Each structure stands twice: as structure tokens, then as C-alpha cells.
Amino acid sequence: MKKIIIASTSTVHGSEYLEYIKEELFSFFENTKTIVFIPYARPGGISHDDYTATAAKAFKEMQKEVIGLHTFQDPVKAIQEADAVFTGGGNTFLLVSQLYKNGLMEVLRERVLNGLLYLGTSAGSNITGQTMQTTNDMPIIYPPSFKTLGLVPFNINPHYLDPIEGSTHMGETRETRIKEFHKFNDTVVIGLREGSWLRVDGDEIVLKGKLPARIFKAGEEAFEVPAGEQIKI
Amino acid sequence: MKKIIIASTSTVHGSEYLEYIKEELFSFFENTKTIVFIPYARPGGISHDDYTATAAKAFKEMQKEVIGLHTFQDPVKAIQEADAVFTGGGNTFLLVSQLYKNGLMEVLRERVLNGLLYLGTSAGSNITGQTMQTTNDMPIIYPPSFKTLGLVPFNINPHYLDPIEGSTHMGETRETRIKEFHKFNDTVVIGLREGSWLRVDGDEIVLKGKLPARIFKAGEEAFEVPAGEQIKI
């Protein structure tokens, strides 16, 4: 049975890395000693080592060992043998490029569908969807495809932002962008606000955190799902 | 000699489509009767016809006829024979996909380098750069390449936004995104604020409008160029 946490962000304003979701992670990783960390999204371009150190620090007090996927000679084998995987945020184009380059997309998908524990934040959540086409990131590298893990029957828009009232900026709002996506694609999009996450247990998907999520379906008005409710697509 | 206007946006807050730049356009298109409009970027997913009507309306009082490129049976021939081209904003991924699909990237580049008047706004400005990799748009469609017209020796970031002071949102600022781009690419990036445009006459590139532009070079601190100054890369 698949067991996944899809978090909008790693960090909420004014708190430490992963702190807001610590309790959930503690129970999620209860029977796990070691977590393989996928650092490929490299936020701000930091190194794989530095990024892994950040993740390791957050999990240290939970007595979990975090090992960077980049330190394995054979990353495919590392995923095949992992007990749990955490993919951190950063740039989704870079993350997806590296997953394809290392031949990891299929093996990661297969293993998570068969019960490998998976935690994603931001870009790491984006890739749990059908495609990465609702990322907010800049296309700093050209990936071989926009197709992602397809662990859930929708796409994620992490860091979902409501329109800023009174803004004079003429760039598109997040909602406008997602509506543009739906002119050309049918995949449902979940706008996950910061501090929200989806907990997936098999076919049950529950919205957790304090805020509602915004659901976008092609050709329909967007609507809100309250925290604590199941997501039914 | 190439003659290009690269505008951050079509519209500034509280004014009509292209109104803020009307005077410049009047002199730029002085000897032109007809402008071929490239509506491929389809902002908000509107139709090619509707989008062309918006552009036509703005140019009507300047006594210019605007013809949508989508109405020509042979778009390559239309570009070969055009006196002037205007590419409107919208989604850059869609625009670039359509330009490649219709075999227009090379002919448009060749003709603009040889003097075809070119006006771009937003996505239409993005494609004047070396690549579309500093767009703000959502990847709603997978283009065959991120390479664009390369009419200027840098990339454009249109609708450039300064960090919002006191923001509690954890998504990346525009500057952070451009810095990430520079971890993997060397191309200089010009952050063009709304209401700014570049006027290109041969090798001379002047920043116009009221605001400074922000210049990003890989491995260097970003800096500002004041309005009215030449851009020298």
C-alpha cells in the first residue's frame, strides 16, 4: 500500500526546516531507521552535500539517519533497497532532469506504488503528480520530459498563493496560470498552501495542516476543500 | 539594421493596452501600414482571433492595420513578406511551441536581424533573448527546445518584481530564481520592470520608460541600470 506525504513547503515562515510537520513525520517514519534523501533540486544552487546536511540535521532529533542519494555509486540500486525516501524542494526542472538522467523515474514510481515510504516537499511534491506542468519554477534546464511519478491522480501546485488584493502588478496570478494550464490539459490541480500537506494511505488522500486547499478542474469553477477532509477526484 | 522594441508588459496598471508606450510605437512604426501580429501566446487561453482583435484595436488609432499570423495559409511566407511584426504576451511555453511547430523560429530571426521591425511584449519579449529559460510562465506545454530568437546577447526577465518587503511567503523571489539560473547557465539576464522597455537600433540598446532595470551576471552581484542609459553587456 502506498504511503506518501506531499507537503507544499519544507519550511513555514518563522520556524525551522520541517518543524511545522515534525509530529506527522515522527509517526510516518516510526519504523524507519534510514531515509534516502534526493537532493537533486538544489534550492539556490547549493551542493548536494550541503543540502543533505540540512535534511540530516532536521531528522537527527528523530533519530533517523539521512543519506544523500548522490553518495551511492548506483542510485537505482539505492532506491531499490531504500526503506524510505525524502525528496527536497528547489528547482523542479533540475530535479526532473536529474531523475531522468540517472534512470530513476520508473524505479522510484514502482517502489513507492508498492509501499516505499515517500516524503516530498515543494519540488519533491510536484513530482508526485502526473506531470511537473504546474510547477512555479523557472526553466533553468531542459528536461527530457515533463512527465513525473504519477503517484496521485492529479497535479500539485505547491506554495499556492491567493491573488494579492490591491496588487498593481500585471503578471499573471497563480489562478490565472492554472486556468491557462487547463486550456490545454485535463489533469486536476491541487493548490496546496504553505503549511498544508496531503497524507496518502493507499487510495485515501487526506488534506492536513490548518488551511484549506484549492482544487482546479478543467472547465469548472475552482473550489476549496477544508483541512482534515479527504481529497476525492 | 535590426530595430526592435522589447517591452516588459503590454499594459501598466490603470491604463489601456499599450497606452503607456504609444508615443514610442508611433515613431517606431512611422513608415509601416501593416503589422503582422503573432497571437500564439494566448494569454488566459483566449483565441487567436480575440487576441488579434485586442492588438488591432490598440493600433487602430495609429492608423495601422493588424493582421493575425494565424489567418495566413502559409505563416512562413507571411513572415518573409511582413513589414513589421508584433508578438504579444501570454504563455511563453505555448508561444515557443507554436513557433517551432510552424517552422517560424529561423525565418523570424533572420528577418529581424535584417531589419524587419519587431515589437515584443512580455512573452513576445522573452523570445528575443538567447533562451526562454528566464520566463515566469508555467510549463503548460512541452516545447521542442528552450532556445529562442537570440536577437540580443542576453535573456529577458519580463514583469521583473523586486522582493516584497515583509513577505512571509517561502516561495523563491525573482532574484533567487535568476541566481539559480546562473548556477547552470552563463547568459546575462535583464530584469525589466513593468513600464520599461529596451529600444534596439543595431548594436545600440537603450533602456526606456521611467524605471531602472536590474542586470544579473553569473557569479557577480546584480546591479541597476538607470532609465535612458545604454545597456552594454
From TrEMBL, chains A, B:
<dbReference type="GO" id="GO:0016805">
    <property type="term" value="F:dipeptidase activity"/>
</dbReference>
<keyword id="KW-0963">Cytoplasm</keyword>
<keyword id="KW-0645">Protease</keyword>
<protein>
    <recommendedName>
        <fullName>dipeptidase E</fullName>
        <ecNumber>3.4.13.21</ecNumber>
    </recommendedName>
</protein>
<dbReference type="InterPro" id="IPR029062">
    <property type="entry name" value="Class_I_gatase-like"/>
</dbReference>
<keyword id="KW-0224">Dipeptidase</keyword>
<comment type="similarity">
    <text>Belongs to the peptidase S51 family.</text>
</comment>
<dbReference type="GO" id="GO:0008236">
    <property type="term" value="F:serine-type peptidase activity"/>
</dbReference>
<dbReference type="Pfam" id="PF03575">
    <property type="entry name" value="Peptidase_S51"/>
</dbReference>
<dbReference type="GO" id="GO:0006508">
    <property type="term" value="P:proteolysis"/>
</dbReference>
<dbReference type="GO" id="GO:0005737">
    <property type="term" value="C:cytoplasm"/>
</dbReference>
<dbReference type="InterPro" id="IPR005320">
    <property type="entry name" value="Peptidase_S51"/>
</dbReference>
<keyword id="KW-0378">Hydrolase</keyword>
<keyword id="KW-0720">Serine protease</keyword>
